[in-house]
C-alpha cells in the first residue's frame, strides 16, 4: 500500500519505487510537452446508423507527438497523469483545441457536429470544472447541444449527488453529457435510474469477452432498449465488423464509433473525411 508522496517512500518496494521514479519523470516531461504543444487532438468519427451511415461527430482523443519516440498512445501516459493531476491541464488543453477547431469549422461553413472530449475524474472534482468548460465554450461562441463531455461510470459511483448537480449545471450551460465505458467496469445500471445523462457509451469490445454470442446480444439489445425508454441516446464503441453494425442497427442503437468505420486520426485527415462526406 502506497504512502503519500514525499512521506511514504521508505515503504516502497524497489519496483514500486522505480515505477514512481518513472512516473515522476513522465510528469516532468509531460508538463514540458504541454508547454511545447506536443499533445495533439486526434479525431475518431462517429456515425449515425439509423437510415444509412452518416458522419455525425467525433470523439477527441489525445496523442503525444514525441520528438524522439513518435506518436505515443494515451495508455502509456494517462495513468501517470491521472495520479499526478496533470490530466486536468491536459483535458482542458484538449477541450480548448477542440473548441478552437470547431469555431474555425463553423466559420468556414461546416455543418454542425457532435464533438466529444474526455473529462477525467480529477477534472470533474475541481471547483471550477463547470465554469472552465462553460467559459471556454462561450469564449468561442459555440452553440448549445453540440459539445459533449464524456465521463466514466466509475466516477459517478459513490458521488451520485455531486454528479447529479454537475450534470444539471452542464445542461444549463448547453453541454451534452455522456457516460463512457458502460460495460467495462462495475457497471451499475442502477446509476441510470437517477442520472439525467444524455448519452450512454457502450463498450462493445467488453461484451466480446463473453463465450456465447447469442447471450451477449441479448444483453446488449436490452441495454439499448432500456436506454431508449429512458430517452438516452446510445453510442456503441469498439465496433469492428459490419456484422455488429447490422445487429446494432436492428437493436435500435443510434450511433457507432469504431474501427469498422474509422480509427482516431489527425485533424487534417478528419477534415478530408468530412469533405468527402459532403
Ligand atoms: P475511451 O475514452 O474509451 O476512448 C475510446 C478508445 O477506444 C480509443 O483508444 C479508441 O482508439 C479505441 N477504439 C475505438 N474504436 C475501436 C475499435 O473498433 N477497436 C478497438 N480495438 N479500439 C477502438 P485511445 O485513443 O487509445 O484512448 C484510450 C483511452 O485513453 C480512452 O478511452 C480514454 O479513457 C483515454 N483518453 C484518451 N484521450 C484522453 C484525453 O484527452 N483525456 C482523458 N482524460 N482521457 C483520454
Ligand atoms: Ca471516451
Ligand atoms: Ca469509451
Ligand atoms: Ca475505453
Automatic annotation (TrEMBL):
<protein>
    <submittedName>
        <fullName>Diguanylate cyclase (GGDEF) domain-containing protein</fullName>
    </submittedName>
</protein>
<feature type="domain" description="EAL">
    <location>
        <begin position="23"/>
        <end position="278"/>
    </location>
</feature>
Amino acid at each position: 500500500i502506497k504512502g503519500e508522496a514525499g512521506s511514504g517512500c521508505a515503504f516502497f518496494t524497489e519496483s514500486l519505487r522505480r515505477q514512481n521514479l518513472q512516473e515522476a519523470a513522465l510528469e516532468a516531461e509531460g508538463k514540458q510537452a504541454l508547454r511545447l504543444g506536443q499533445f495533439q487532438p486526434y479525431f475518431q468519427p462517429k456515425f449515425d446508423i439509423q437510415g444509412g451511415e452518416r458522419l455525425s461527430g467525433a470523439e477527441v482523443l489525445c496523442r503525444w507527438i514525441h520528438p524522439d519516440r513518435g506518436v505515443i498512445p494515451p495508455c502509456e501516459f494517462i495513468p501517470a497523469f491521472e495520479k499526478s493531476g496533470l490530466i486536468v491541464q491536459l483535458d482542458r488543453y484538449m477541450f480548448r483545441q477542440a473548441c478552437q477547431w470547431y469555431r474555425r469549422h463553423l466559420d468556414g461553413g461546416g455543418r454542425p457536429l457532435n464533438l466529444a472530449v474526455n473529462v477525467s475524474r480529477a477534472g470533474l472534482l475541481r471547483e471550477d470544472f463547470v465554469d472552465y468548460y462553460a467559459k471556454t465554450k462561450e469564449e468561442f461562441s459555440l452553440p448549445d447541444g453540440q459539445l459533449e463531455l464524456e465521463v466514466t461510470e466509475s466516477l459517478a459511483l459513490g458521488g451520485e449527488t455531486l454528479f447529479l448537480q454537475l450534470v444539471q449545471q452542464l445542461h444549463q450551460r448547453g453541454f451534452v453529457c455522456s457516460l463512457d465505458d458502460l460495460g467495462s467496469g462495475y457497471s451499475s445500471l442502477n446509476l441510470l435510474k437517477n442520472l439525467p445523462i444524455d448519452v450512454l457509451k457502450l463498450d462493445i469490445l467488453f461484451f466480446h469477452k463473453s463465450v456465447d454470442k447469442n447471450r451477449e446480444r441479448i444483453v446488449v439489445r436490452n441495454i439499448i432498449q432500456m436506454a431508449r425508454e429512458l430517452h438516452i441516446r446510445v453510442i456503441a464503441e469498439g465496433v469492428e465488423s459490419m456484422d455488429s453494425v447490422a445487429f446494432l442497427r436492428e437493436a435500435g442503437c443510434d450511433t457507432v464509433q469504431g474501427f469498422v468505420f474509422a480509427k482516431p486520426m489527425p485533424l487534417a485527415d478528419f477534415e478530408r473525411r468530412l469533405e468527402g462526406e459532403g
